[in-house]
Each structure stands twice: as C-alpha cells, then as structure tokens.
Specification:
mainly alpha, DNA-binding, single chain, TetR family transcriptional regulator, 9 helices, DNA binding, 2 domains, 192 residues, 76% helix, HTH_TetR, Tetracycline Repressor, domain 2, Homeodomain-like_sf
Length: 192
C-alpha cells in the first residue's frame, strides 16, 4: 500500500498563499514555502519544478476558487438579481477568504505572469475568457447591447466590489457586512 503524501500540492500552495498575503508575492520562494509548510525543499520541487510554476499554480488555483461562485452568481434569474449576487460574491468571498483575496488583489503581474509557461498562460487566458463570456451573457440577459453598457456592467459587478475589498483591506476594523451591503445597494440602484 502506498501512503498518502505528507505535503500535497494544495498544502504547499496554502503555505505560498499565506506568505503572499502576509509579506507579498516576492516572499514566495521555494525555500520559504518549504519552511512555512514544514516540508523538505524536495517536496516543493517535486510538485513545482521552479518558482514560476509555483507562482502560476497559486494564481490559477485562487482564480479558480473565486470564479466558481462568481460564475454561478452570474447565472441566477432574474438577471438583475444575478448582477447583485455577483457583486455580493466578490465582497463576501473576499471577507471569508482574506488570504486568497490578498492574492487576487495583488494581480497576476505580482506573481510573475510574464514568466509563466505557455500552458499556465493558456489556463489563465481560458479563465479570463470564461469570465468575459459570462459577463457578456449577463449583459445580453439585461438587454445591454452597446459595448459601453457592457463595460459599465463589468465595472459595476467586478471593479466596484474589488475597490470596496481593497478599501476594507486597508481598514481591517471596517464592517465587512456593511461593505457587502453597501456594494449590493449601489449595484441594485445602478441596475434599476
């Protein structure tokens, strides 16, 4: 019988996320992740052959985790409720997952996106395409045919909530529920 590995890719990515949230993406090195996870450095290199692969893995996993709920929210009926739920997901998910939210707020460039493998870049592009298509579909359901209206929708349900999350991250004493409700109210008012 084979035994379960003590240090999985997910446990190593969890350690990397903690480092990134606490000290920034520059702190995520192979040796720092090994130390944070209590793993031999060989375990890190076995799962991630280099730092670029590790950073790409962290970014892509975080986006996947976030998008699961966000994309589901965009499909809710009626479409006006979908817009509110999507914006709510950004703030609520970020409050419930502050470490992952810190990774997303840093952005892919902080995680060396320019140096990722072609495969990692393709996965990131597919994630972005999936998001863009889902926002476009919501725009269609809302009757937004003008590209400017679709851009406003993206600003409303993605950028506005992230601005609120950034503001909340700078002020940890702020009420996350109040932030979430304020964003939802703005989206409801804007959508009509």
């Amino acid at each position: 019988m084979s035994r379960k590995p003590a240090h999985t890719a997910d446990s190593l990515l969890d350690a990397a996320a903690d480092l990134a949230a606490a000290e920034g993406a520059a702190a995520v090195t192979m040796s720092a992740v090994a130390a944070a996870a209590g793993a031999p450095s060989g375990s890190v290199y076995y799962r991630f052959p280099d730092r670029s692969t590790l950073l790409a893995g962290l970014w892509l996993r975080t986006v996947e985790r976030f998008q699961e709920g966000f994309l589901a929210a965009l499909r809710v009926d009626p479409p006006r409720q979908a817009a509110v739920r999507a914006a709510h997901h950004v703030t609520d998910w970020s409050a419930r997952h502050p470490t992952d939210a810190a990774v997303l707020l840093a952005g892919p460039a902080a995680f060396g996106a320019a140096q990722w493998s072609a495969e990692s870049k393709q996965v990131a592009a597919a994630q972005q395409t999936r998001l863009d298509e889902a926002v476009r579909e919501l725009g269609d359901r809302l009757g937004y045919r003008d590209p400017a209206d679709r851009e406003r929708l993206a600003l409303l349900i993605i950028e506005l909530p992230y601005a609120a999350v950034r503001r909340h991250a700078r002020n940890p004493g702020a009420d996350p529920a109040g932030t979430t409700e304020a964003v939802a109210r703005i989206v409801r008012d804007a959508i009509g």
